[in-house]
Specification:
about 500 residues, alpha+beta
Length: about 500
């Protein structure tokens, strides 16, 4: 009992112990907050990466792809059996997209992806990221009347409603220009005006003429960042500014197959937008019907009618080991016979995931040094207490207290410091994590500077994820450092001889 009483007395009467407790508290709180925020970012990144990528990708090494995907999918089924939940053939090719805005043409580099409308949504969460609710339920490359992005006030009118208005304005402008040219024939004599492929011409009484008021081109689904810019408006609010929207036509240029690839161009009508909130995907991916892209690229054998694809995406049932299935397929299709690349979604994003893990590890090491500094403070404090309490130690040993009892007093002191500091730090850290967005808003209000810019991260709030194992490990680590820092002073106190301790008193 005397050991606990003395430990509590030293803890309450030494104000320098308060500094050690505060150091441990701040270190633990910082580690909890940083790890929770990093875990939140990592979780969001994993969900969004895996949301568009299937579990396994069976991919050709060249843009011409490989023929007969049905045979390949049958071989895959025979190899991995009932672990398959879904498969879909895909054509993936680099392309250029041209859009018209205020009389000028804007060209963007994109990744054009041909997908099967019936099976693609089964291997990924693609449908969840589409703006139109009907397309989330059942993917369609037909333009909708309206109803895109319900609940978003900044999203403009889209679909057939926008298309009819746009066509009417273009035709009115065309008629006005024709009247002006007719009124001033001399000014335009000998001048030939090149037709504008994006200009929606007035209907002509011929069935072969495309009428944009009633018809659309082949549908395309664009990543939202391809045709929009995220910035702040005049009121300082984050807003998306759209260069084009569902109902507009765009031109896409891509290479065909063959020994000498040649550019192929075709017009498409934007039927929906895709928003995964991963800038790499939203700024580059464009989805079109698989059969249309195969036809335009010449990937369908004219005699047999067998089509080619560039990859097969595979989704496995929950609980399946991705690496085991990948190795089985690699053994089935050895690289010396088949020029295929078979990767899991983690393999495809390996550099990014490895960079995040390395950053988190280094950050934890650096922040844990804060607690280590607090440990050295505890060590210095205990040595001071041992020197100051030499007389008390001598009296205790003269009264019969064993060395182990004296040692346990200072070890208990260290455990108390560590327990109080780490406990308060854990509570403080969890409180900050739970209210971090409110705290960030308060800091922004006081300083006038933005802590978290949603135009950069594409998050409306700071994501957090509290992992109980992480919190427990941080608390145990802080407690262990406090106990280790008290070991040497406790040993020194235990080795004091009572006669030597009382000689100079």
């Amino acid at each position: 009992m005397y050991k606990l009483l003395l430990s509590w007395r030293y803890l309450c009467t030494r104000y320098i112990a308060l500094a050690s407790i505060i150091s441990v508290t701040l270190g633990v709180a910082t580690l909890v907050v940083v790890n929770s925020v990093m875990s939140g970012f990592s979780r969001e990144m994993h969900q969004r990466l895996h949301g568009i990528l299937s579990d396994l990708v069976f991919e050709s090494q060249n843009l011409d792809g490989f023929p007969d995907p049905q045979w390949h999918m049958e071989q895959i089924r025979q190899t991995i059996g009932d672990r398959i939940e879904g498969m879909t053939p895909v054509v993936h090719v680099p392309a250029l997209l041209r859009m018209r805005l205020r009389g000028q043409y804007h060209t963007r580099q994109i990744n054009l992806i041909g997908i099967d409308r019936d099976t693609y949504a089964r291997v990924s969460d693609f449908g969840q990221y589409l703006l139109h609710p009907a397309n989330r339920e059942q993917l369609s490359f037909l333009l909708r009347e309206d109803g895109y992005a319900p609940g978003r006030k900044d999203f403009p009118t889209s679909g057939w409603r926008h298309r009819r208005v746009s066509v009417g304005l273009d035709r009115a402008l065309t008629e006005e220009q024709a009247k002006q040219q007719a009124a001033a024939p001399a000014a335009t004599a000998g001048v030939t005006i090149a037709p504008d492929p994006f200009k929606m011409a007035a209907p002509v009484q011929q069935e072969a003429v495309f009428d944009p008021l009633r018809e659309q081109h082949t549908g395309v689904i664009l990543g939202i960042a391809i045709c929009s810019l995220r910035a702040r408006n005049t009121d300082g609010e984050v807003q998306d500014f759209y260069l084009c929207r569902p109902g507009d036509d765009v031109e896409i240029i891509f290479p065909n197959v063959g020994n000498v690839p040649k550019p192929v161009n075709s017009f498409f009508t934007i039927v929906d937008l895709y928003e995964s909130k991963m800038s790499e995907y939203d700024s580059s991916f464009a989805f079109v019907p698989l059969d249309k892209l195969q036809d335009l690229r010449g990937m369908i054998e004219p005699v047999t009618g067998v089509a080619a694809v560039t990859s097969i995406q595979i989704k496995l049932k929950p609980g399946s080991d991705l690496n085991v299935v990948r190795d089985l397929l690699r053994a089935k299709f050895p690289p010396e016979q088949y020029p295929y690349r078979i990767e899991t979604w983690r393999d495809l994003q390996g550099p990014l995931l490895a960079a995040v893990r390395l950053e988190t590890t280094i950050l934890n090491i650096l922040l844990f040094l804060i607690i280590a500094v607090a440990g050295f403070g505890i060590l210095a404090t205990f040595f001071m207490i041992v020197v100051e309490k030499t007389r008390d130690i001598g009296i205790l040993k003269a009264l019969g207290a064993p060395s182990s009892g004296v040692m346990s007093i200072f070890l208990g002191y260290g455990v108390s410091l560590g327990a109080v500091g780490s406990g308060v730090g854990m509570i403080l850290g969890l409180a900050i994590v739970l209210h971090i967005n409110q705290i960030a808003g308060g800091v922004e209000f006081l300083t006038g500077h933005e802590v978290f810019d949603p135009t950069v991260y594409y998050f409306q709030e700071i994501p957090t994820n509290i992992e109980p194992a992480m919190v427990v490990s941080v608390v145990i680590g802080a407690l262990a450092i406090a106990v280790l820092a008290s070991v040497l002073p406790a040993i020194r106190a235990a080795r004091l001889h009572p006669v030597e301790a009382l000689r100079y008193e």
